[in-house]
Amino acid sequence: MVRIQHAARVALVVAATAFSASTPAAAIDVPHGKIIAQRWCAECHLVSPDQTRAKADAPSFADVASRKTSREISAFLTDPHPRMPDMTLSRDEIADLVGYIKSLGPGPEEPVTTPPKSGPDVPAMPKSG
Ligand code: HEC
Predict the structure, then answer these.
(1) Is the CB of 75 under 6 A from ligand 1?
(2) How far, in Å, is the centroid of ligand 1 from the Cα of 83?
(3) pLDDT above 70 covers what percent of the chain?
C-alpha cells in the first residue's frame, strides 16, 4: 500500500512538472534558463561566472545583462541573429533564458519584465526536448 501511494505521488509530481513546463509564460524559471544556456549557448558564450572558455566574438551573458533590457534580449532571441544558429526556442524557453541572463547582473531594466505576448513575427514553435 505504501509503495502504491508513493508511486501515485511521484506520478502526480511528474504530471505537475510537465504541466508547468508547458504553461505559457506564467512564471519565469531561472534555473531552467541556466540549463538551456549551458546546453545551447555555452559553446560560444560565457553563460555563467564559473565558465572559462567560449568564443572570443560572442559577448558573455553577464555583459549582455549589463547592456540590454529583458525586452531587448527576448526580442533578439525571438528573431535570431544571422551569426547565431537558429535554435527555434519556444517563448517559454526564451523567457527562462532572459530571466537567467538578467539574473547575472544589474543593467538597464524596464518595469515590464514579461516578454512580448505574440505578434506577426512570433510564430508559436512547440519544441520538445
Ligand atoms: C555558434 C555560436 C553561438 C551560439 C551557439 C549562441 N550564440 Fe549568441 N551570439 C553569438 C555571436 C557571435 C554573437 C555576437 C553577434 C553580433 O553581435 O554580431 C551573439 C550574440 C548574442 C546576443 C546579443 C548580445 C548583444 O550584445 O547584443 C545574445 C542575447 C545572445 N547571443 C544570446 C544567445 C543565447 C541565449 C544562446 C543560446 C540559446 C546563444 N546566444 C547561442 C554566437 C552564438
Answers:
(1) no
(2) 8
(3) 61
User: Which residues are CB-contacts of 65 (< 8 A; sequence separation ≥ 6)?
Assistant: 101, 102, 103, 104, 105, 106, 107
Alpha-carbon span 102 to 107, nearest angstrom: 8
> What is the model's pTM?
0.70
Task: Give, using CA atoms, the residue closest to atom 11 of ligand 1.
Answer: 58
Distance (angstroms) between ligand 1 centre and the Cα of 12 equals 37
Distance (Å) from CA 92 to ligand 1 centroid:
18
Q: What's the pLDDT band for 37 if we cut at 50, 70, 90? A: very high
Domains of the chain with bracketed CATH: 27-103 (1.10.760.10)
